[in-house]
Amino acid sequence: MARIEFQNLAHAYRPNPATLNDYALQPMSMVWEDGGAYALLGPSGCGKTTLLNIVSGLVTPSEGKVLFNGHDVTAHGARERNIAQVFQFPVIYDTMSVFDNLAFPLRNRKVAEGEVKKRVHEVAEILDMTRELPRKASNLAADAKQKISLGRGLVRKDVAAILFDEPLTVIDPNMKWMLRRQLKKIHQQLKLTLIYVTHDQVEALTFADEVVVMTNGRIVQKGGPEALFLRPDHAFVGYFIGSPGMNLCPVDLDTDGVTVGSQRVALDVDTLATLRHANGALTLGIRPEFVRLAAVGEPGAVKAQLLRAQQLGNYQLVTAQCDGHLFKAKVEPHLRVSDGPVWLRLAAPETVFFSNDERIAIRITERTSR
Length: 370
Ligand code: ATP
Hints:
By secondary structure, the chain is an alpha+beta fold. The chain contains ten helices and 21 strands. The protein has helices spanning about 50-55, 80, 100-110, 115-125, 140-155, 175-190, 200-205, 225-230, 235-240, 270-275, and strands at about 5-10, 25-30, 35-40, 65-70, 70, 85, 160-165, 195-200, 210-215, 220-225, 245-255, 255-260, 265, 280-285, 290-295, 300-310, 315-320, 325-330, 340-345, 350-355, 360. A six-stranded mixed β-sheet has the order 6-7-8-3-9-10, with helices on both faces. It has a six-stranded antiparallel β-sheet with strand order 13-12-11-14-20-21. Residues about 365-370 have low confidence and may be disordered.
């Protein structure tokens, strides 16, 4: 397996990129550690496939280098790099047996038949497919076919990394969950370098040690689930992660707090001092999980108009509008929320601020918030 490094890497499909918007992948340097399980998460068109194809060698970056274990492989094609790829739709030979499908990458590389047999059986065991080995691949369901695709990646001992491009799209929801767990188990057993592309945050968060969040050709954060949830580096991460995503509201500074429209959220002096040093447009971010419904007229709370309260089983999702800005709050399912005005507490230990969409490294402390 390989440690993969990008050095000043960028890619533009069109020649002579003049602005950052001309890049499908904006300039970046980063490391994918040997044995790491990474998810590449972002909306359609953000550059996930381009990045994956640069790792595999299907696309040569227009700028910078790709290193595998310190060796420059930028000019190497996919085969030379020894990358296994699992695509959205299973790539298997329907007329062959499961055994022959799994054996194919080894036979293709002239591996001795004794070794082929041994490896195929080992991999079938890991995938729980031993009984299916003699069966024709055409008779199998979609999830079993995708397991074969995965197996063809695992069967070679010399692969540098296995790349997955939305591999569970065609799998039904129950099987998805099982395959994801199986993949995680395989990763723990074999310590492979895995990069898994998805636009589904649940898939990314359950599979990966580290999630790499992309938007507009840029990596905006690389981190574990907790960091993405509590300390989003970029407003996009706040909005994209979570269900629903973070409440994001433009605010202005005033003497002892920030204003949401005409209403003030009072802040402690340290937070205020830090915000005064930020010189971009300020945004307050608070996840629905941390917005508290306050008592009528509670000092420090903002007054909002209730739009709806939806019962969603183990919580109630309250949507309210404060001077034209929407806020969502996840509250106790049994809390009585009546029509009309509600008071929202937006200053919490988990409240974050962004300057020009980049997080400012402060958090309001319980002790000092008013
Ligand atoms: P999706 O989830 O829809 O597959 P993605 O995140 O994988 O999207 P990419 O396919 O990498 O995104 O596309 C990134 C940007 O590069 C998009 O604006 C896309 O239109 C553009 N692009 C992708 N492939 C090419 C190509 N071969 N030629 C020109 N532009 C391309």
